[in-house]
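User: I'm preparing a small set of examples for a lab meeting where we compare how different chains pack in three dimensions. I only have the primary sequence for this one, and I'd like the structure in token form so I can line it up with the others. Please keep the answer compact; I'll paste it straight into my notes.
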Amino acid sequence: MISDEDLMMRYVAGDIKAFEMLYVKHKGSLYRYFIRQCKDTHKAEELYQDVWHKVIKAKDNYQNSAKFTTWIYHIAHNLLIDEYRRFTLVSSDIDEIDDLESSNNFVDDLAHQDVINQLKVCIKALPAVQLESFILKQEAGFDLIEISNIVNCDKETIKSRIRYAYSKLKICINSKFRSSVDE
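Assistant: Understood. Below is the structure token output for the 183-residue chain.
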């Protein structure tokens, strides 16, 4: 299998198919990165396209010194920061958590859907920096060092953001369950 870095170098050399392969490989996770952090689906789509436009524009200056995914998510992060500065965007639409698997038990489906909806509410309540770190870890699968390179923060700060995100999610979910049991 050809690495992302090799595909990008092939694209730099003029191989359009290499770019298409990169696009197809990363379109889902990169799009979800934006959709989970923007209120507006249209804005998420615009930012997503802006990343690829920047990749095309930067191809002649691309250096194979970091992982391609770190580089492209760094571009995505910078676009989000610019958007936050311009319009003070607040966190996310989390409407793409996996669909429920089919089940024969309607009550189980409803209970499962309730848990998913509560999780969505809790994720939406995370502060933007925690949300981004959480998404980069959980959705994109980056490690702490890669996330720190993407968002220009030290590893310990990223570790804290993720730890606080998990803690807030746990508290939020527990409080939602307690309140539903009390009703």
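A couple of notes for your slides: Confidence is low (pLDDT under 50) at residues 88-104. The CA atoms of residues 24 and 168 lie 34 Å apart.

User: Perfect, thanks.
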